[in-house]
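Contributing: when you submit paired examples, paste them exactly as shown. First protein:
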Amino acid sequence: MSMLQHDVYFQQSPEQEDDNRRAILRIVLWIIAALGLILCLSNLHHGSVVVAWLELGIVLFCSVFLYKLKRTPKLKLWTTALLILVFVVVVYSMQIRALSAGSYYWILVMPPLSLLLLGLHWGSWL
């Protein structure tokens, strides 16, 4: 098989790429919403009320995003807003030391998540 034929298999139309991104995003949104709700309840239990409210905001944003996911033409805008919101909450939580010692893995998850959801060009900027 020549290189030209090999490249044809990996080229996707923008519609297919958008559908794949939406499918991945649906899974990621459910995971972030579930973890956010668990962390919100945990932070309320431990007395970090501000972080709990911020995490509840992330859960609500994910819920609205899941509702609009199939129809929104501004997918990158919504995705960028989600990632910025999560980045801000993680950095704020680290600053006030509301995260436990094992919770710093979020910093390692953010760059691959950004690349996965926004693509190579936009994800590398965030």
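Second protein:
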Amino acid sequence: MQLADVVPSLAGRIIGVFLVVLLLILLCPWFGYLRLPSSMRWWPSRPHGPLRALSLTLKEYTGSRSSEEGYREISKHGQPFALCNPSFYPQVLLPPEHVGWLLNQPEHVLSHEKANEDIHALPFLAPGFDNYDHLELIKAIRHDLTRNIANTEHALLDELEHAADEALGPAGDQSWREVRLAEVLDQIVFAACLRVFFGVSLSRDPKFVYQVKTFTRVTGAMMILVSQWVPWPLKPLVGLVAGLPIHYYWLRLIIHLYPTFQQRIQCLQTKTDPPPTDLVTWIVDLALARNPTKKVRISALVVRLTLISFLPVDVLIAMTQHLFLDLLSADPKHAYPDILRREAETAVSSKSHPMPQTESAIRESLRLHPLSDRMLSRRVVQRPGITLPSGQFLPRGTWLAVAAVGVHRDERNYPDPDEYQPFRFVGKGAGEENKGVLVPATSERFLAFGHGMHSCPGRWFGAHVMKVAVRVILMNYEFEPLDSRPENSVVGQTIIPPLDVQVRVRGRK
């Protein structure tokens, strides 16, 4: 047989195998959805047949609001419903009546950690990463972060004022200028957080800040891509490729931070000088306490630190952006920014920290615009599965969650739920949400940070940064109102504020 005959034959076989694999992948949604009980309701419709299953799944790639719509039509009546999912996993959203049951299930039945792996896609992007050890480290470090809020406030305030001066212009300059809101808040909030994490020298190092931001954006994008857009049969392959730029930036950050960690380890071991009060100190101290006889692996600490600290900052920036978009697009006659400014000035002059109107305004923006349209995610890990309170049996591997946007816009929980009321949580609020409610407080009706034992551990620090940032910006600057509230984007399950909004701002006397 000649080479000219072999090549077409081999090419034909490769094409045939490719087509078979492609067909199996395209049939995956239907195979997955067939595992759910016939009594389960679907939104927007039941996927009868493989083509219909594939069609409904592809629609979810375009930023569908199926979870919110399904909540209104089904969950409000106490019933769970299933959604088609771009990852081809069967996903079931529970009604509010099932939240207590969901939170009471042990980890070996409904796993938060496994769902967390699904959401962040780390097993695919970094297969050798020890996620469980990482989760324990997150809890410990963020405990230190919360406990040291008061000790870091001076540094936080100093950096916020410095970054605002650079991003928005001198506070006393009353000439109007046009800025991109997302860009200036990114500059201000990132600088403030890096100051608390690493100290003043690194927080104002342009090269380091660039590396941190690039790592954060690349990693966040790859996580969303692999976790929410890639069908599960392709996740291992796509994850390996998508993880390459993440590992590249990990290497650059390890090189940049290695001397800082070496200095901090020596400082803590010799105890000759008191170490700085920052996140590097806390993470090194924890590593030394957990393994006193072993050498600390700086590269492993840097990798964990990047995931603990950098990625949540992007979430904090988005939260702050939602707040300012809501304030600036509200009817000017309400003068909401002026009300918050006066509260901030009173708090500063009296040296008191409570700012209930600011807390409420932040909380209201989180209610209307949570980070994700689905919260309280769990994966069924018990064999062969679990039976819901409604009687339906879900097989092992099924995703569970609650439609957070639906809960937050349910008139049974909040009167006029689609209306922006920044002081909704001051005075008489919705149910237990009465005067003095704090931003990080969670409940079955407020899921922006999750709820229960797996609520976001960094929410207290994040809320504090937001309050101080709002105080600094509003006391030193004023903004022209926006004509209307720009629309958010929905990418998979993630709600993203518009990134191209221009606002006019000037300093105050």
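If you have annotations for the second protein, write them as plain sentences, like these:
The chain has 18 helices and 13 strands.
The first helix runs from residue 3 to 33.
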